[in-house]
Amino acid sequence: MAGRHSRGIMMCAGLVAVGLLGCGGPAPEPAPGSATPESEAVHPPPAGSVQDTAMPVDGDWIVSRLPVEMATLNPLLSSHDAYAKTITDLIYEGLLKRDNETWEMKPNLAESYEISGDKLLFTFKLRNDVKFSDGTPFTSADVKFTFDILMDPKSDSMPLRNYFENIERCEAPDDYTIRFVCKQPYFKTLISLGEDLKVLPKHIFSNGDFNKHPNNRHPIGTGPFVFESWDTNQQVVIARNEQYWGIKPHVLKRQYKVITDDNAALQVLQRGGLDIMGMTPDQWVSAAVNAPEFEAKFNKLTYYIPSHGYIGWNMRRPLFSDKNVRQAMTMLLDRQTILATIFHGLGVEVTNDFFFSSLEYNKDLVPWPFDPPRARKQLEDAGWVDSDGDGIREKDGQKFEFEFMVPSGSPETEALATVFKEELQKAGVKMNIRLLEWATFAETVQKLNFDAMIMGWQLDPEQDPYQLWHSSQAEKGSNYPGFKNTEVDTIIAEARKEFDVQKRAALYHRMSAIIYDEQPYTFLFCLKARAAIDKRFRNVNAYRLGLDGREWWVPADQQKYH
After folding, report:
1. How many CB atoms lie within 10 A of CB 202?
2. Which of 132, 140, 312, 441 is a plausible cystine mate for 172, CB 3.0–4.6 Å?
3. CA–CA dist 322, 328 (Å, integer)
4. 519-539, pLDDT tens digit by residue?
């Protein structure tokens, strides 16, 4: 997991490489590495940032890679998919937008807003000069329609809907006023309403099946780019919106090439077929990427953004219903060695869901050790023993054999799975690795049809773990392990009403301690994002949430595409 694209908790395939704010690269993901000073994580140095004192000019394209193809370009249905969000956040807009440097919420489709003293009434005054890309005027009816369809249980938007459950109703008293009435205060209400609610055109989506609407593949928004084409398994192209109401970007087109193989993508980059690419750890340390000829053509940036990877255990399965077994699984994964060898130390090991340098992250929780003897004892104490001597533990007639689901296309993730499989085999546990392409993988996870899987989350700056850990999210939300804990539910509900950051962080520390003990996840790593960017681009900055290609420009004499 993200136009910013990091506005929520978004799942990403495997352990990905680079965070781009509307720039069309994969969102960052899990990865290993040695600890790095927190100051670097919070304020990543713009290593390789390219500034220029000349006046920016229009022209050229940004050609980037999609390592997987998204299922939809409807922002209500793809809010949890970082790959789709890189594109939809450039086509659709919210009422407010976040400043790249300060994170302050500023007017966008709304020119102003008011919040009542009890934080139960939010009123937005809308701009009257905005049109959708098909020329239809934008009004409050579009905002109300978007909210209403989001909250409709028939729409497949549960991952996003849970951030709006405190809102009782939406009212549109006139064409340019929109009002939200809340049932109770929630610390993220302004962010949810202002940034997460990407406004859809009512005149387009009010007819037909919303979940299967043809315009889910042909988006029409108010944003700085307009949809041009989507060639399945090949590319998505968007062009600058020449009628855009706001400040237009300098680049005229974005081309997103679907290239699933990392090595093939690097070859395309080296041939000039890509302008920007997130690097795998192996690629980042390779001789080719560190060669003088490569560094002469590309700027290389590395920085942390809020994200982490994990192995999720399906607690609905008898194999993983016992926390002692889940703890044993974690102690059979040598994360330190994997971090150092497979990921070349390009990250930090994490123990809970929050960004490792944030106030909410519980730093008292040390990583579970790699301890096979202790893990084997816990398995035996839980009743899993190899009574027939075939090398596989069993209990009540069931063999300890399970399927580990992995998104294909990431050599590092596959290597991690192979190392894990070998260690489990030594402990009398049989793990079968199942590789799936991303769309099938994501659909299978959402249907909860897995034993164990590896994935990652890209995190919101103001994170609310309701989506991941509340019991209500265990069937149709993003609580994929099926974790249910009354105390955690209570903490999450209390934290949602707590506006004091310090007090809210203390609540999350307790929640993280409970999850740490229960181990529904084996937490992995927060990887550094690693990007190579063609040197012709100027004003390239690494922000805390990634790169923002809307700011980039190319000198006229260096422009490549016309």
Report:
1. 20
2. 140
3. 10
4. 999 999 999 999 999 999 999
